[in-house]
Amino acid sequence: MRTAYKCRAYPTPEQIAALNRTFGCVRVAWNKTLGERHRRYRDQGVPTSYKETDAALTRWKRTEELAFLSEVSCVPLQQALRHQHAAFQNFFAGRTRHPRFKSRAGRQSAHYTRSAFRMRDGVLTVAKMSAALRFVWSFGEVNVAALNPTMVVVSREQDGRWFVTFAVDADQDVRAESTGHAIGVDLGLKDFLVTSDGERLANPQRVARRARNLARYQRRLARCLRGGSNRRKAKAKVARAHRKVRNSRQDFLHRATTRLVRSADVIAIEDLNVAGMVRNRHLSRVISDTGWGEFRRQLEYKCERAGRTLIVIDRWYPSSKTCSTCGHLLAELKLSTRHWTCPGCRTRHDRDLNAAKNILAAGRAVARGDSGDACGADVRRQGLALPRSAVKQESSSSRTTEKSKLWATHGRLI
Ligand SMILES: [Zn+2]
């Protein structure tokens, strides 16, 4: 499987000029190709292949007004066309939104494949540049001198900072040692998560504080006149505040997911319909702030990398309303009720811990391969074949891990 290392880069003024020129050409190649694709589809109703876009790029380079495209390395331009082709395939498969035109104001990037960069003893040189590109390696556990990247991405963030990302084919020995433990995780609004072991992780206060700062800068920006220098300064402050919110949230989520993946072989979570909940305006702010979607994404790739089994329980499974001791199902449980006593067995429950225990039980049922009744809920399977056990899962190739999904009925949050 592939993994990537992203570090800060410090290009020289000449390198900045060369990279900005490359970004400009990447943007022209992307936008012009996108425009042609649109027109062809509208006029003739036919989709465009990658080969055709590549041939068009070669033709453009021969014309007078687009001859400047040959002044930069051709690799980032071809990569941009490949990405656009993949973006369209994803779009037609219903996985993503329609590809959009690139703006010069956003994040800029150039992808260099092996033929367009050289990496020797930790020194990076990219095509059409004589001097090495300086970067700061911040991954102590990885020896940069031995790094053999398959691709290098040079990027400039909106706030003007530069980065270089090294994509490498990771070794197989990143697989984690077996712990013999399974864990259920309940994501919540009061605490970020509660595990079936009773461990709680509070929502980070730092992120909330930084989000408040960001909102203040955004209000200030809205009051500035267009085109003024104050507006430019206010804009830079908003970009920096955005970065701080994003970084501290990412940091929090990475710590949380790494910890979970280390602690258990089998991790069961709920499939929260984040997109649907974000549309609910009472919950939207707090949910988009907590980053549940990103949490799931990180957990998925880290589980795959470590050879762990991630089981996703359907969002309609009544994990909060079911008693984890006797299986009694409550007719109703308000969001504000933090504790309740089961009418069936008189067990006093903490709302979130009880939910985490139920999620674990439902996850175990999937891992065993039960397709029937789990914790009083209707449990069904969907999609690809499920892993029968953690052991079998580990023996299968990490690249072709078949995602397991369990579907049932429930409405816990909305
Ligand atoms: Zn009970």
Q: Short description, anyone?
A:
The chain is α+β, with helices and mostly antiparallel strands and 414 residues long. It has helices at 13-44, 50-62, 74-92, 205-223, 229-263, 274-279, 281-290, 292-306, 351-368, 390-395; strands at 2-9, 108-113, 117-120, 123-126, 151-156, 162-169, 182-187, 191-195, 200-202, 266-270, 309-313, 339-341, 348-350, 373-374, 377-378, 380-381, 404-407.
Question: Which helices and strands appear, and what pairs or packs with what?
Answer:
Blueprint: E1 2-9, H1 13-44, H2 50-62, H3 74-92, E2 108-113, E3 117-120, E4 123-126, E5 151-156, E6 162-169, E7 182-187, E8 191-195, E9 200-202, H4 205-223, H5 229-263, E10 266-270, H6 274-279, H7 281-290, H8 292-306, E11 309-313, E12 339-341, E13 348-350, H9 351-368, E14 373-374, E15 377-378, E16 380-381, H10 390-395, E17 404-407
Parallel strand pairs: 7-10, 10-11, 11-17
Antiparallel strand pairs: 1-6, 2-5, 3-4, 5-6, 7-8, 8-9, 12-13, 14-15, 16-17
The chain binds zinc ion.
Zinc ion (ZN) binds next to loops.
Structure report:
The chain is of the alpha+beta class and 414 residues long. The chain has 2 domains: 2-169, no CATH class; 182-411, no CATH class. It is built from 10 helices and 17 strands. It has helices at 13-44, 50-62, 74-92, 205-223, 229-263, 274-279, 281-290, 292-306, 351-368, 390-395, and strands spanning 2-9, 108-113, 117-120, 123-126, 151-156, 162-169, 182-187, 191-195, 200-202, 266-270, 309-313, 339-341, 348-350, 373-374, 377-378, 380-381, 404-407. The strands form 5 sheets. A 7-stranded mixed sheet has the order 9-8-7-10-11-17-16. Strand 7 (182-187) and strand 8 (191-195) form a beta hairpin. Helix 4 (205-223) packs antiparallel against helix 5 and helix 5 (229-263) crosses helix 8. The two termini are 37 Å apart. Zinc ion binds next to loops.
